[in-house]
Design a protein that fits this description.
The protein has about 150 residues and is mainly alpha-helical. The chain has one domain: P-loop containing nucleotide triphosphate hydrolases (Rossmann fold), CATH 3.40.50. The chain is built from seven helices and three strands, in the order H-E-H-H-E-H-E-H-H-H. Strands 1-2-3 form a three-stranded parallel beta sheet. Helix 4 links the parallel strand 2 and strand 3 (about 90). It is globular. The protein starts with 5 loop residues before the first helix and ends in a 16-residue tail after the last helix.
């Protein structure tokens, strides 16, 4: 579900980790893969993946919101395999992990990464109305003139 606080919760966890003097990187999934694509162009992709695998807590936000191409699926696999059982990875998504495979170009690589990621995961399913909708300014009711500014 959208707007229920997944990103808020992930960033709150990230802030707790920072207060304990550990490193955290928050990256929206699409921006992360765009950055890796750019790193390929200037031959720094290995250094970028190494950086992503050494950070104490990596937060990947909005994963599988859009389909992942072959290179993105491969990069995801590489990051998860290198971080597996060594570093903490937090993934937020509007889809369940079982749906992620349908969003990837290489299901075998994706399945291997997802299996590693979920094997030691604590899965939180957050349901409810959109927090953004609950906090938006209310619309004035035209039937109540007393609500209009004088």
């Amino acid at each position: 579900e959208v707007g229920v606080g997944k990103t808020y919760l992930a960033t709150a966890l990230g802030h707790m980790v920072i207060r304990r003097r550990n490193s955290v990187l928050f990256a929206r999934s699409d921006k992360l893969f765009t950055r890796l694509r750019a790193a390929r162009l200037d031959n720094t992709v290995d250094a970028e993946i190494r950086r992503l695998t050494t950070i104490d807590v990596l937060i990947i936000d909005d994963f599988a919101l859009r389909p992942l191409g072959a290179t993105e699926t491969s990069d995801f696999y590489e990051i998860i395999v290198e971080r597996h059982r060594a570093k903490t990875t937090i993934v937020t998504s509007n889809r369940e992990p079982s749906e992620w495979l349908t969003m990837t170009a290489d299901t075998l690589l994706a399945q291997s990464a997802i299996d590693r990621l979920t094997a030691t995961a604590h899965t939180l399913v957050i349901e409810g109305p959109s927090y953004r909708q609950r906090t938006r300014p209310s619309q004035l009711d035209p039937d109540h003139d007393d609500e209009l500014p004088q």
